[in-house]
């Protein structure tokens, strides 16, 4: 092995001894290079004429600077130098003075440990400084956060309070003091409940308790506070949330106060407007409804409620003749008087619109007490009212309901009050009527039917069938009489009943038109299938329908669209409907006659007013019906008075040149007696059962009915 | 929540051992306190090769940085840099090119303060205190803005870092977001503890670090490859750190798996 090879081997072994005990940022070849230089230094120290510890100490320090800081690095280095360095220098161990070698090792170790101590202390100092610096920075950040919080706290327009978990105020900002018209100092140590009026204690305390118990993350309640020694009311929106400590336990709460007084005033004004009638200042429908509902909610046994519906009589006339300004003044005066009387009794007066008013007695002392109140406000509103130069007297119809709240509901109450008012009005105006279930059952029934009828028309619940009218002389078919039938889903309704309601409510216009069209379609169908054998059809037109504006056009259109010939139809109307108020025949008559219609006067004999002028009209036929006809129906001898009446009515018709038909004839005997007094044709059971248009056609086709005119 | 977002300072906790200062201890440094040494010595008693593996990880950093330097990378982002004892990225890089720029990132205030001291006067290196998960906070920090250009290739170093990121923090997502911001041609240096071999050592480590500021989670080679699926691993792929391009044959361990850590350098194509 050459000297150089010996040295290389020494260096590599040295690298193995020192690498791995601590991290060095050099690669292994770089470490070899470094240790090679160190080896050279040590050799020269070993070989020096005069020994110096400097070189060896430098090598020790260099190892530390390169971060060979592990104890294994020093141990390995010392052992290797002690055993291997003489060989690298070209000697055997025995040839090197022992003292020189030990001194060299000592110097190397001394340099190493001095540098290690320096380095360690240096690093400790650096890390300590780093900790201090980090702490300073954290502290600074805390201070900045704290300062920012303080700035927010102090300058916020929002009131901020720091509150302990038991509700004690620990600190507040200036805004809280301003909102509650006091000073910050005086608020500290009071509680959040001190900042609300008694009525809000419970709500706030409960919300706060739930927050502190961590049931809720925050709370928000609107509260009122009355400033002591003044009437000033402060409304605030109070929002609370919890602040947790480092261990996640609630530490304190932050409560925010927003002054919402102005917002509340506006809200109150808006809500007053939403609940009141602008003309009279009385409650409106919304407020009435809500008060009625809350009165009904009181289900204490024996609790009673009263509801009165009022309609001013003849108000429309006042409006039409004296103008709306006068009408409005009258409404205001009535409203004022109504309010004065009922308000004193704890009742509520409301205006529904137009001339309709309602009085709610939410806590009624009984029917007698409510009727007493009605009579008092009735007196008040009917006293004359002076508007400008006019002295007006209002009169009203009143419907009253008074009953226990248990077992009734809003709908029922309103409906019954409405029915009572309806009864009061139909009994004649300026009346009041108390709801009575028996009396009102009938009214209620009609009420319901009138409500159902328009929908029934839409749903095709009506249909038309025909009663045969036969000549008494030979039993042949004289005509058929149309009847409208309501296929009501619940029960049978007599057509006379619903037609009367339709007449009252005005549905008769739609129903009449519908029926007219049905009849024309059937008549046309008969013309098509039976030709000249097609029967004449008589159809009842109600007085209201007969006078409906546009009726002529409507009927003309129906004829055109269906193609039915007018000569096949007989329009059946009551005598009174043929004449106007002055007793002259109505204008439409001549138009209908021009169109080819003929008329039947129904209920002939019930009214003799226009008898004399009937002959002027295109009427060929009269129909008689009614109880007095039944006097001839029994098995016993005819009842003389009835016989006389029938006789005189029929005679009158004959004198006018009319053909006479009797309705409601059931038996042959009845028919025979009527025939005897001059009745020419009959309908009813005797003449034949009611049948559909198709059945009528089949009956005629089969020869069952012999057509004859 | 990190400092920037909450507006609140992260407290300097000197009561609990820090992984960064323990690591410094394993490397032979004295930038540590009794509390750190106590944990480090406990670890050493259970896992005798812990100093070796810390040093090997540090050597892997050196080789990975050199690898990137050799491929022309001149900007480095070292996340989870810890206490920079010796062989820091800026020392390695600036020894090759004094203009090389380096940004260190750590979430631990003391480590950051320490780095600041070390870097005082070095215009091409700086440190950011931020959380790894706060990707925008890291990449858009004033320091990164000043020193790094993400339109050009960058080397991001995440050594011995992700074994402190539990699944609940969605590590895959974090890596994806860094990948998104890195230019094509960038590199990722990555090392991670594993229990694929010598699980008993790994379990001791996990146990010992459980109550430190930095609990550990070990991952398998497969899991690590999955974490890095956005990157193409350069040769030799995911291997035990001593096996990753050793400078001499002597630097390979007889049993590389005793290093308990995988190393890999990924490339963004």
UniProtKB/TrEMBL annotation, chain A:
TM ranges: none
Origin: domain of life: Bacteria
Domain PAS: 145-198
SUPFAM superfamilies in alphabetical order: EAL domain-like, Nucleotide cyclase, PYP-like sensor domain (PAS domain)
Residue ranges constituting the PAC domain according to the UniProt record: 219-272
InterPro entries given in the database record: Biofilm_reg_signaling, EAL_dom, EAL_sf, GGDEF_dom, Nucleotide_cyclase, PAC, PAS, PAS-assoc_C
Residues annotated as domain GGDEF: 303-437
Gene3D superfamilies, per database record: 3.30.70.270, EAL domain, PAS domain
Domain EAL: 446-704
Protein name, as recorded: Diguanylate cyclase (GGDEF)-like protein/PAS domain S-box-containing protein
From TrEMBL, chain B:
Database matches in Pfam families: Methyltransf_19
Superkingdom as given in the UniProt entry: Bacteria
InterPro entries: SAM-dependent_MTases_sf, SAM_dep_MeTrfase_SAV2177_type
Protein name: S-adenosyl methyltransferase
Gene source species: Halosaccharopolyspora lacisalsi
Origin organism lineage: Bacteria, Bacillati, Actinomycetota, Actinomycetes, Pseudonocardiales
């Amino acid at each position: 092995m050459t000297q150089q090879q010996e040295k290389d081997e020494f260096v590599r072994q040295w690298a193995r001894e020192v690498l791995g005990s601590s991290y060095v940022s050099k690669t292994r070849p770089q470490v070899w290079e470094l240790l090679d230089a160190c080896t050279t230094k040590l050799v020269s120290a070993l070989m020096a004429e005069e020994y110096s510890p400097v070189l060896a100490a430098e090598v020790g320090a260099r190892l530390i600077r390169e971060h060979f800081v592990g104890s294994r690095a020093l141990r390995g280095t010392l052992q290797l130098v002690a055993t291997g360095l003489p060989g690298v220098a070209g000697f055997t161990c025995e040839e090197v003075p022992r003292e020189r070698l030990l001194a060299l090792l000592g110097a190397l170790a001394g340099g190493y440990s001095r540098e290690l101590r320096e380095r360690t202390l240096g690093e400790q100092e650096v890390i300590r400084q780093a900790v201090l610096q980090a702490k300073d920075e954290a502290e600074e950040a805390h201070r900045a956060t704290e300062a920012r919080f303080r700035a927010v706290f102090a300058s916020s327009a929002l009131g901020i309070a720091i509150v302990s978990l038991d509700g004690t105020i620990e600190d507040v900002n200036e805004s809280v003091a301003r909102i509650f018209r006091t000073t910050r100092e005086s608020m500290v140590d009071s509680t959040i409940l001190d900042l609300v009026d008694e009525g809000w204690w419970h709500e706030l305390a409960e919300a706060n308790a739930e927050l502190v118990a961590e049931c809720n993350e925050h709370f928000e309640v609107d509260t009122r506070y009355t400033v002591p020694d003044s009437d000033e009311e402060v409304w605030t929106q109070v929002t609370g949330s919890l602040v947790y400590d480092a261990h996640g336990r609630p530490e304190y709460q932050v409560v925010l106060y927003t002054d919402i007084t102005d917002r509340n005033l506006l809200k109150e004004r808006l809500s007053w407007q939403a609940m009141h009638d602008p003309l009279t200042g009385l409650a409106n429908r919304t407020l009435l409804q809500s008060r009625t509902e809350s009165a009904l909610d009181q289900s204490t046994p024996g609790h009673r409620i009263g509801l009165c519906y009022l309609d001013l009589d003849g108000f429309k006339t006042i409006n039409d003749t004296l103008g709306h300004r006068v009408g409005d003044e009258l409404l205001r005066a009535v409203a004022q008087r109504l309010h004065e009387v009922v308000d004193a009794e704890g009742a509520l007066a409301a205006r529904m619109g137009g001339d309709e008013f309602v009085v709610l007695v939410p806590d009624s002392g009984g029917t007698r007490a409510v009727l007493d109140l009605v009579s008092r406000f009735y007196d008040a509103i009917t006293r004359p009212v002076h508007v400008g130069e006019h002295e007006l007297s209002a009169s009203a119809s009143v419907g009253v309901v008074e009953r226990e709240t248990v077992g009734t509901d809003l709908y029922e109450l309103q409906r019954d009050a409405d029915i009572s008012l309806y009864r009061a009005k139909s009994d004649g105006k300026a009346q009041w009527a108390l709801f009575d279930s028996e009396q009102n059952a009938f009214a209620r029934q009609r009420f319901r039917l009138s409500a159902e009828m328009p929908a029934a028309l839409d749903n095709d619940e009506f249909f038309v069938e025909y009663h045969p009218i036969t000549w008494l002389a030979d039993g042949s078919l004289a005509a058929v009489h149309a009847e409208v039938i309501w296929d009501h889903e619940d029960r049978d309704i007599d057509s006379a009943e619903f037609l009367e309601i339709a007449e009252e409510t005005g549905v008769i216009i739609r129903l009449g038109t519908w029926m007219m069209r049905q009849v024309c379609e059937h008549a046309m169908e008969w013309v098509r299938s039976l030709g000249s054998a097609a029967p004449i059809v008589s159809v009842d037109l109600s007085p209201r329908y007969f006078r409906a504006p546009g009726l002529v056009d409507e009927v003309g259109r129906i004829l055109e669209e269906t193609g039915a010939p007018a000569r096949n139809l007989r329009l059946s109307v009551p005598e009174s409907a043929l004449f106007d108020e002055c007793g002259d025949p109505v204008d439409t008559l001549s138009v209908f006659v021009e169109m080819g219609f003929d008329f039947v006067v129904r209920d002939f004999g019930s009214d003799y007013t226009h008898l004399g002028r009937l002959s002027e009209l295109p009427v060929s036929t009269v129909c008689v019906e009614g109880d007095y006809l039944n006097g001839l129906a029994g098995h016993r001898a005819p009842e003389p008075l009835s016989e006389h009446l029938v006789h005189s009515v029929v005679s009158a018709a004959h004198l006018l040149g009319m053909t006479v038909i009797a309705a409601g004839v059931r038996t042959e005997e009845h028919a025979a007696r009527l025939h005897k007094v001059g009745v020419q044709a009959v309908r009813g059971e005797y003449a034949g059962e009611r049948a559909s248009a198709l059945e009528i056609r089949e009956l005629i086709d089969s020869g069952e009915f012999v057509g004859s005119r | 929540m990190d400092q920037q977002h909450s507006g609140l300072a992260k407290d300097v906790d000197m009561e609990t051992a820090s992984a960064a200062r323990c690591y410094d201890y394993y490397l032979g440094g004295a930038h540590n306190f009794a509390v750190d040494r106590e944990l480090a010595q406990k670890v050493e008693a259970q896992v005798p090769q812990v100093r070796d593996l810390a040093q090997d990880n540090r050597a892997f950093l050196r080789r990975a940085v050199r690898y990137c330097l050799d491929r022309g990378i001149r900007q480095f982002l070292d996340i989870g840099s810890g206490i920079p004892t010796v062989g820091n990225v800026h020392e390695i890089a600036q020894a090759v090119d004094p203009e090389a720029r380096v940004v260190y990132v750590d979430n631990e205030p003391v480590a950051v303060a320490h780095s600041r001291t070390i870097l005082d006067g070095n215009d091409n290196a700086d440190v950011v205190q931020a959380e790894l998960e706060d990707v925008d906070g890291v990449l858009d920090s004033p320091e990164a803005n000043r020193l790094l250009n993400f339109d050009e290739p960058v080397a991001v170093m995440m050594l011995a870092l992700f074994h402190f990121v539990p699944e609940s923090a969605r590590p895959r997502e974090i890596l994806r977001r860094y990948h998104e911001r890195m230019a094509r041609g960038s590199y990722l240096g990555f090392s991670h503890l594993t229990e694929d071999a010598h699980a008993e050592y790994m379990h001791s480590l996990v146990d010992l670090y459980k109550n430190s500021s930095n609990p550990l989670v070990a991952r398998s080679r497969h899991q690590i490859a999955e974490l890095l699926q956005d990157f193409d691993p350069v040769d030799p792929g995911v291997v035990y750190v001593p096996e990753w391009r050793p400078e001499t044959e002597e630097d390979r361990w007889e049993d590389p798996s005793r290093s308990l850590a995988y190393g890999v350098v990924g490339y963004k194509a």
